[in-house]
Design goal:
Elements lengths: L7 H5 L4 E2 L4 H7 L10 H7 L1 H13 L4 E3 L9 H16 L6 E6 L2 H5 L13 H17 L4 E7 L2 H11 L6 E5 L1 E2 L2 E2 L5 H6 L7 E7 L6 H12 L3 E4 L5 E3 L4 E3 L9 H7 L1 E4 L7 H7 L5
Parallel strand pairs: 1-12, 2-3, 3-4, 4-5, 5-8, 8-9, 9-12
Antiparallel strand pairs: 6-7, 10-11
Helix pairs in contact: 3-4, 4-5, 5-7, 7-8
Length: about 290
């Protein structure tokens, strides 16, 4: 059966769609070695079958969108293409419509030092656009349903990505990682989301890889300036410690007020780091 029978944007106009969860935690649960700077990209290079198995676990949990393992893959066209192909195989094996979203991680992800949670890399918008252009080109050539411009810490990088997409006809969602009502680089959220308001390539905007408590204010800010469908896929409230390469978990799980997110306009909802298939399976009925 075809991977998806219609554009994701069409589905979002009518209903909520369930995203998958964290790929890295699922691969770790499968016994994969994620050490080194490429993280999930290492497993993609060495054991693509494990990546497909992780995608399949999310399909079985009810996920309707699979995000590829390209987040920390740099300028390696073969691996970027493979990430889309592997996710596509899992999607085609599903008994229902499943879309593939090609992950375009931020520049900071490739530094493997936690920079994606700080931004302000010292690069210009033009330099960031030059960095992302070949990666996006390789991903689009592989034929995903949509791009996931995700975990962006900085408005400057969002502008660079939109510059690359302009006029391509590609479709993408754009999500920031946020804290305390601002981007990780400290910009006001209304300013951050406004850059995507007039971009026809962007089908949805929102947040990912953030504390669940930061989701609703960010969605409200996005809705106020864009009028686009909203995206939310937070982590479990843990904080990444780049020095130790580990997550500092919260004392107690943070609540997910999914109904409030839906009321604010959320149409794509799922999980990011440390959210596994069981949490996605439990989330699905809350979107019905």
């Amino acid at each position: 059966m075809p991977r998806a029978t219609g554009p994701l944007a069409e589905a979002l106009a009518h209903r909520a769609v369930l995203l998958d969860g964290g790929l890295s935690n699922r691969l770790a649960d499968q016994g994969c070695d994620l050490s080194g700077g490429m993280w999930t990209g290492r497993v993609l290079a060495e054991s693509p079958g494990q990546v497909q198995a992780a995608h399949t676990a999310y399909v079985r949990a009810g996920a309707e969108v699979l995000i590829t393992a390209s987040y920390q893959v740099g300028h390696e066209p073969d691996l970027l293409e493979r990430s889309v192909r592997v996710a596509g195989a899992a999607a085609r094996a599903a008994a229902r419509e499943v879309w593939v979203a090609a992950s375009v991680g931020p520049y900071g992800a490739l530094l493997a030092d936690g920079s994606e949670y700080r931004g302000r890399y010292g690069l210009t918008e033009a330099e960031l656009a030059a960095f992302h252009r070949p990666r996006i080109g390789a991903l689009l050539a592989a034929g995903p349903d949509v791009l996931a411009l995700e975990t962006l810490p900085d408005v400057l990088e969002a502008r660079a990505l939109l510059r690359v997409l302009a006029g391509t006809g590609a479709r993408a969602w754009l999500t920031y990682t946020v804290a305390g009502g601002r981007t990780r680089a400290g910009q006001p959220l209304a300013e951050a989301f406004a850059v995507a308001a007039a971009a026809p390539e962007v089908i949805a905007v929102g947040v990912n890889c953030c504390d669940p408590a930061d989701v609703l204010p960010a969605l409200e800010a996005a809705a106020s300036v864009t009028g686009k469908p909203l995206v939310a896929y937070p982590n479990d409230g843990s904080v990444w410690d780049a020095a130790t390469g580990s997550w500092n978990a919260p004392a107690a799980p943070a609540p997910w007020p999914v109904e409030a997110w839906r009321a604010a306009g959320a149409r794509l909802v799922g999980g990011c780091c440390r959210i596994g298939p069981d949490r996605i399976a439990a989330l699905g009925p809350r979107l019905a």
